Amino acid sequence: MKKHDAHQVLVACVTEHKADFYRLAFSYVKNQEDALDIVQESIKKALISMDSIKDIQSIKSWLYKIVVRTAIDFLRKHKRLTLMDDEALEYLSSGREDQYKDIDLKQAMDQLPVKYKTIIILRFFEDLKMDEIAEIIEENVNTVKTRLYRGLNLLRITMTEEDLEQ
Q: Is 105 exposed, middle or buried (0-12, 13-18, 19+ CB in 10 A)?
């Protein structure tokens, strides 16, 4: 495939899925400005490393992978907690109906280790299949299933503890 064609496919994918990429970045940083920065940085990285994509059909998964890594790098670099403001919460809730309606779920998700949180977000909030998630995080499908199971168990334990505290 010619470089020009790959560029067009990349631009089309970014245009079609920009809200998904933003929502994914936001789920990590809980801040509109930082999420936009992460998406912008991810697009920049994608444009720079466009030659490294082997299969143009998997460009969406490739972009998800870049957004996840960029968000995790951002968190490591800044090591700070951010609160979700009302404007951002309203913006997110205008996307999908099930986006963090229960604040306890949001708090429990924030406490999960990143490796579990990423899989739960990609599976349930971005509605990706297990093999797509495996490709994004560069693990085999069995590892993804195990982490999903453990993450859901941690989430259940966290939710139960929070319920008991109230």
A: middle
Which residues have a Cβ under 8 Å from the Cβ of 39 and sit 6 or more positions away?
18, 21, 22, 25, 67
- Per-residue DSSP letter, 50: G
CA nearest 92: which of 26, 140, 17? 26
pLDDT in tens, 14-38: 899 999 999 999 988 888 999 999 9
For residues 151 and 124, state if they share a domain.
Answer: yes
Tokens representing 113 are 């280790």
Q: Are 71 and 24 in contact (CB under 8 A)?
A: yes
Range in 79-88, 97-106, 123-132 with the lowest mean pLDDT: 79-88
Range of the domain at 149: 102-166
Domain end: 57, 81, 99, which one?
Answer: 99
For helices 141-165 and 130-137, give the axis angle rounded to 10 degrees.
100
